[in-house]
From TrEMBL:
One of its GO terms (molecular function) is zinc ion binding. GO terms for biological process: axon guidance; regulation of synaptic assembly at neuromuscular junction. Pathway: Protein modification; protein ubiquitination. The lineage of its organism: Eukaryota, Metazoa, Spiralia, Lophotrochozoa, Mollusca. Its main location: other. PANTHER family: E3 UBIQUITIN-PROTEIN LIGASE MYCBP2. It comes from Mytilus coruscus. It catalyses: [E2 ubiquitin-conjugating enzyme]-S-ubiquitinyl-L-cysteine + [acceptor protein]-L-threonine = [E2 ubiquitin-conjugating enzyme]-L-cysteine + [acceptor protein]-3-O-ubiquitinyl-L-threonine. Residues 472-523 form the RING-type domain. PROSITE patterns: ZF_RING_2. This is RCR-type E3 ubiquitin transferase. Keywords: Cell projection, Metal-binding, Repeat, Transferase, Ubl conjugation pathway, Zinc, Zinc-finger. One of its GO terms (cellular component) is axon. Its EC number is 2.3.2.33. The keyword Zinc-finger applies.
């Protein structure tokens, strides 16, 4: 139909009529879905479910729109349907996931055709952000004195809100008292006490939550917009809008800076969202220098006067490497000529307005004197730390715990600058107490040679990509400097105790997987000399699983499978990776060796196992109840049992009598109560289901379902079947 509609370069009257019907249809559906969304927010009704007839009509209409947007004529037409654009943004927040996905696809195609100015008026956004968004140009603009309105929406807020509603935010208060601990919350949770749509004004979509898959799609949409993939105009507006949302934090009034108030402002959440889509341009253009009020402060410098005025009283704002200290007027005037425009300039601000923006390893961060906020786009975790008072006084050295920052004059801090807190005392036991050549204390661990590079990035530390204020990406609750840290072989830095805990806890669930042993940032294998005690057994287990999986791959004749031999395939020339992904192995509780428990996809179908008793994981050799023959070639190393209740390889051995596969184990209460005669015959699927056909998936003759059966040596058995 779409082909016929848009095969020409202009729309006929009939075609226009069909389109306007679709647009009207969407309008009706949108308001219906919004109503249901509103009532689901108040908890009166459940949220709309996907693939129900509730969302089906809207989904079909959007499929038409998506098809229309495939042609140039279609995109131009759609971009002019202002009510439709409005509806799309509404559905983005209220629709079911499949509707949201369609909306995002349509937006990707239609936005390049829509002018930012038009979109602004559709979304009742009063003005676009200044395209010259760097704080240097903002500082030299005259009308910068306008009062900041917390409720004034920005052009991209409707998209940024999608990210904000998926964030988990930890808040911390760094104060002088012994107030440790963090609170964790989502936007939806901190709105619980603000009643209705009226509290968010025109930004009604700031309410509710968004799932993380959708937030990730929005993150990549905004990143593509910023990189110019949609259009150059949108690239400029997007970067400026992200900058605007971040700078908004500096404009927050003193009375909303109190933690409990601040976390409820849209400003806070939108700026955290912006940190997820930060790019390197922002880092340089948004960071300011800082004047200090006291002339003896160690950081920054006292505020100078304008060199150009030379009257000894007009205060400078901008420091230009060529022209010296300048006030806003002189800066504008001197840098007007084209030849002067590439001068290196930096804005200097009072401590109250100074801002520092950073982007380290995908984690965006902004620092003001009263707050530090950071957000990680990959995990959608964010962190807001409220700082009390002026930093200049707190930094004065004596009486501040080197880990938690607590300051006190009780004398407890006298030894090594560590407070009495048990955690800090534990950290102190493993911490290095040396002072680095730059004068900063070493933030590494004891007896390491050489010491951890200075986390304040003193000197040229090429290998260091993080700094003292960055969160440890494992715990995501404390800054790197808050506990002794180590730099792994891949150069990433984490708290020593966090890495150790990850390596000790190992994988989640019964099946052995090795994802935990990779760096959370770059996925290189975790390695550091002090971790050898933990890494050695992991390495041995890895080799054991690898060897067994490779052996099985060969016996099954899959070592030349397409997935391994096709260039570009996920496991191209990586048979071991393929085998370990394909087969599921478990650690035997008795002999501590890895044993085979079926193919991984069977386990995935059975669903995630949340709770299990590791004592029930026993290999064939150690659970040889029927005294199966020992294989003359392989002993009991590869001895496998059949699940008593179906034709799958067993994983669990329970009650000292019974072998179960994953799925049957999950459902054991029901299955073990089915009378033996009512159990399905071979071929029997998991959970007592009958399978099609008459070939046993294990390719063996075995006693009826409900009886124990040793499959024998897995290696030899499979060798026979192929
Ligand atoms: Zn402490
Ligand atoms: Zn050290
Ligand atoms: Zn240093
Ligand atoms: Zn940590
Ligand atoms: Zn790494
Ligand atoms: Zn065993
Ligand atoms: Zn089973
Ligand atoms: Zn069977």
């Amino acid at each position: 139909m779409v082909g016929i509609l848009f095969s020409r370069s202009k729309l006929s009257h009939l075609q226009k009529q069909v389109c306007s019907h679709i647009v009207q249809g969407i309008r009706k559906e949108t308001s219906k879905i919004r109503e249901e969304w509103e009532s689901s927010l108040t908890g009166k009704t459940p949220t709309l479910s996907e693939n129900s007839d509730q969302d089906a009509y809207c989904f079909e209409l959007l499929s038409m729109v998506l098809a229309l947007s495939g042609s140039g004529v279609g995109r131009t037409y759609l971009a002019q349907q202002y009510p439709l654009l409005q509806d799309l943004f509404s559905l983005l927040h209220t629709g079911t996931p499949r509707i949201q996905r369609q909306v995002i696809s349509v937006l990707r195609r239609v936005l390049p055709e829509a002018k930012p100015q038009t979109l602004a008026s559709i979304l009742s956004v009063p003005n676009l952000p200044p395209s010259e968004y760097s704080i240097v140009s903002l500082a030299s603009r005259e009308d910068d004195n306008e009062v900041y309105d917390v409720n004034k929406p920005g052009i991209l807020d409707v998209l940024l809100a999608c990210i904000g509603k998926a964030l988990t935010v930890q808040t911390k208060i760094k104060a002088s008292g012994p107030q440790k601990g963090v609170t964790s919350m989502t936007l939806a949770e901190c709105q619980l006490d603000s009643k209705s749509a009226s509290s968010t004004g025109s930004r009604w979509w700031m309410r509710g939550k968004m799932d993380s898959a959708m937030a990730n799609k929005i993150i990549s949409l905004i990143q593509d917009m910023a990189s110019g993939l949609l259009s150059e105009t949108w690239a400029t507006v997007t970067k400026a809008a992200v900058a605007e949302a971040i700078l908004a934090l500096t404009k927050l009034d003193e009375n909303v800076r109190a933690p409990q108030t601040c976390v409820k402002t849209p400003t806070m959440w939108l700026s955290l969202s912006s940190l997820c889509v930060l790019d390197q341009d922002h880092v340089e253009r948004l960071t300011s220098g800082q004047w200090v009020s006291s002339p003896n402060g160690q950081h920054g410098q006292p505020r100078p006067t304008c060199d150009n005025h030379d009257d000894g009283e007009t205060q400078a704002i901008i420091l230009c490497t060529e022209c010296g200290n300048l006030c806003a007027d002189c800066d504008r005037y001197l840098h007007l000529p084209r030849k002067n425009r590439n001068h290196q300039r930096q804005v200097f601000k009072e401590e109250e307005e100074a801002i520092k923006v950073d982007l380290h390893e995908g984690c965006g961060r902004t620092k003001l004197f009263w707050l530090m906020a950071l957000a990680d786009s990959r995990t959608l975790k964010a962190m807001v730390e409220f700082r009390e008072g002026k930093q200049s006084t707190a930094k004065s050295g004596l009486g501040v715990c080197r880990f938690c920052g607590t300051s006190s004059n009780t004398g407890l801090l006298a030894i090594g600058n560590v407070c009495a807190d048990t955690e800090c005392q534990e950290y102190a036991k493993i911490a290095c107490i040396k002072t680095l050549p730059c004068g900063h204390p070493c933030r590494g661990i004891k007896d390491e040679d050489p010491c951890l590079p200075c986390l304040h990035r003193c000197g040229k530390q090429e290998t260091l990509k993080q700094d003292a204020d960055d969160m440890c990406m494992i715990c995501f609750t404390e800054a790197l400097e808050a506990a002794p840290a180590i730099q792994l072989k891949c150069n990433h830095v984490f708290h020593s105790h966090c890495v150790r805990s990850v390596l000790s806890k190992r994988w989640v669930g019964p099946r052995i997987t090795f994802g935990f042993s990779l760096c959370p940032i770059c996925k290189a294998t975790i390695d550091h000399p002090v971790l050898r005690d933990l890494l050695k057994p992991i390495q041995e287990l890895f080799e054991d699983v690898r060897r067994k999986a490779m052996m099985r791959l060969e016996y099954e004749g899959l070592h030349k499978a397409e997935a391994i031999t096709t260039p570009g395939a996920r496991f191209y020339q990586d048979p071991a990776g393929f085998a370990m992904d394909r087969y599921a192995y478990y650690v035997c509780y008795k002999c501590n060796k890895a044993y085979y428990g079926g193919e991984a996809r069977c386990e995935e179908q059975a669903g995630a196992v949340e709770e299990y008793d590791p004592q029930e994981l026993v290999c064939g050799g150690c659970s040889d109840v029927s005294r199966a023959q020992v294989c003359p070639k392989h002993g009991t190393d590869f001895l496998e049992y059949k699940c008593r209740y179906c034709c799958s390889v067993a994983v669990f051995f329970c009650f000292g009598t019974t072998h179960f596969c994953n799925a049957c184990h999950d459902d054991f209460q029901r299955i073990t109560n089915i009378p033996k005669l009512e159990l399905p015959r071979c071929p029997a699927g998991p959970r007592g289901k009958l399978m099609d056909g008459d070939e046993c998936p294990l390719h063996v003759k075995h006693p009826p379902t409900g009886e124990e059966f040793a499959l024998g040596c897995g290696v030899c058995r499979n060798a026979h079947t192929f």
